[in-house]
Every structure is written in C-alpha cells, then in structure tokens.
Amino acid sequence: MYRAALLLVGLSACTPVPVSPERAAEICEDKARAAQGPTGSVTVGTNSRTGGFGGVEIGVTSDFLAGRDPLEVYAQCIFDRTGAAPIRPPLLR
Q1: What are the Cα distances from residue 13, in Å, to 3, 7, 24?
Q2: Rg of the Cα trace of the chain?
Q3: End-to-end C-alpha distance for the chain, whole angstroms
Q4: Are 39 and 58 contacting, i.e. CB atoms less than 8 angstroms apart?
Q5: Could you count the other beta carbons within 10 Å of the beta carbon of residue 1?
Q6: What is the distance between the alpha carbons of residues 74 and 90, in angstroms, rounded to a whole number?
Q7: b/e string for 23-62 if b means 16 or more Cβ within 10 A?
Q8: CB within 8 A of 27, min separation 6: which ones?
Q9: CB-based burial label for 78 (10 Å; 0-12, 13-18, 19+)
Q10: pLDDT digits (tens, 9 = 90+) for 25-74
Q11: Contact at 8 Å (CB) between 19 and 82?
Q12: Max Cα separation, the chain?
C-alpha cells in the first residue's frame, strides 16, 4: 500500500503544468522563428583590465534542418502545450 501511494506521488510530480494560451503563443513563436533559419549574435567590447574581447554565437534547430514549416512548428507546439488549436496566428519575422 505504501509503495502504491509513493508511486502515485512520484507520477503526479511528473505531470506537466498547464500553460496559458497566451504564454504558449509566446513560447511557440520563438520556436517557430528558430525554424525559419539560423539564429545568432556577435559580441564585441573592451575593458581596462583585459583589453578587447569578442564572441560569436550561432544556433540551428532540428526543425530548420528537417525543413519543417514554421507555421506547422507553431501549431504543433501550441497543441503539445495546451491541447488546443492556436488562439492567434504567430508573429514571425
């Protein structure tokens, strides 16, 4: 009996927390934008202690590499998080 109760408590801790449709849209828009193409940033600066510095960051998602449609990525992401269709179209670049 004790083990069954412990198992139920453990399984309930793994249950995903529901996300509001508005928050899901924000999260999924970012995912859909990343599916449009590579993302990246460049950092350049200087300081008095170490002198100049710089950096480059490039990101590529598996959705982009697989050639998935960003609108499809958005709709599937919304459904996965809310169990419903999107409440609005994505705002993509």
Answers
A1: 15, 10, 21
A2: 20
A3: 55
A4: yes
A5: 5
A6: 7
A7: ebbeebbebbbbbeeeeeeeeeeeeeeeeeeeeeeeeebe
A8: 19, 77, 81
A9: buried
A10: 999 999 999 999 998 899 999 999 889 999 999 999 999 999 999 999 99
A11: yes
A12: 66
**Which secondary structure element, helix H or strand E, spans residue 51, and what is its range?**
strand 51-59
Half-sphere exposure (Cβ direction) of 58: Cα atoms closer than 13 Å: 3
pTM of the model: 0.68
Token pair 């100049």 in the structure block, residue: 52
In terms of Cβ atoms closer than 10 Å to its own Cβ (0-12, 13-18, 19+), residue 77 is: buried
> What are 71's two structure tokens?
């609108």
